[in-house]
Amino acid sequence: MCHVILTCWSMLWTILSIVVAFTELIAFMSADWLIGKAKPSSSEDVDNRTGGSQEPYHPTLGIYGRCTRISHMQLSRRDTLCGPYAENFNEIASGFWQATAVFLALGIMILCTMAFVSVFTMCVQSIMKKSIFNVCGLLQGIAGLFLILGLILYPAGWGCQKVTSYCGPYASAYKLGDCSLGWAFYTAIGGTILTFICAVFSAQAEIATSSDQVEEEIEEGKNLICLL
Hints:
Butyryl-CoA Dehydrogenase, subunit A, domain 3
């Protein structure tokens, strides 16, 4: 018989698992990992409303995508275009970034799977006498290790030609040159930290859902057990 068990720890773990998966996915897909040096406006780059020159803009570069400003032939209008610069895996800027993409993708796939599974732990707490919370926590810890490896390898690729075109000739491995780190990199770091917190919360969720109070409620024949 299926017992729906809700506790503070299990709900917190489920919500955080979903948040972490989406956080890492959004960061990975973003082009705002590196913010390039400012590109000065040209003499034709004029704001049609004010008649003044537009402010310099900062192109951004992600693991496989980028955002830059393109000009239109008419009215000297400028738009920001974002999209992948690499049409396939081999066109990613450097071998280090290819490794980063692999490790981050593996970590995110595990996190998304665990986020999906976490929703069903309200009804199913074990499979083949193994606690789902413990298994998910272990896999989240492994995903966190993949994310760490990806984030460590990422700065090693800053010396590639693609990065130097954005950050200047002084950019090299673990040296940004004229660039700065964008929000996506910091978001990925924050998501990695939360991944390990999720792994810890899974153990607390296991303790909460297997407590004596829950067992007493099950013995009383209750199918919905809410200990919030």
